[in-house]
Amino acid sequence: MSALSIEFGALASWLSVITSMGTLIFVVITHRSGRNETRIAEVEGKVETKASKDHVSNLAAKIDVAEDKITRMQSHIEHMPDKDTTHRLELAIGELRTEMRGISEKVKPISAMADRIQEVLLEKVAR
């Protein structure tokens, strides 16, 4: 019987260790699953609030408005001159300035003559 009692003693200690390990594993698994269920519930709540149908339809309407504005801006930009055209315009304006300076110099004597003629006519009228 002593051999049988030794076997029961060893079996009892191993059974105790196995029971403790099983309890530990059960606690860890249930704790994690409870925490995961809480996280899943939080995510579902966020998804329901963030992706409500009204919210999505409001965002879709805003996107439509933005797309319309972008389309209008693109059509306006297409009609604007590009950089080469702008450069040619700048050069042409520079040439016009130069020509205007030349014409201004040529008109000064004519302006002086017109002033003298006006003075002579005013003198004749005053007499």
Description:
The chain has a domain at 82-127. 94% of the residues lie in helices and 0% in strands. It is built from three helices and no strands. The longest helix is centred in the N-terminal third of the chain and has 49 residues, at 2-50.
Provide key terms for this protein.
mainly alpha, 127 residues, rod-shaped, 0% strand
Short characterization:
With 127 residues, this protein is mostly helical. It has helices spanning 2-50, 53-79, 83-126.
Low-pLDDT residue spans? none
Largest sheet: none
Classify the helix fraction into a percent range: over 70%
Instruction: Please report the total strand number as a whole number.
Output: 0
Total helix count? 3
Element pattern in H and E: HHH
Strand fraction equals under 5%
Mean pLDDT: 83
How do the strands and helices of this protein lay out in sequence?
Blueprint lengths: L1 H49 L2 H27 L3 H44 L1
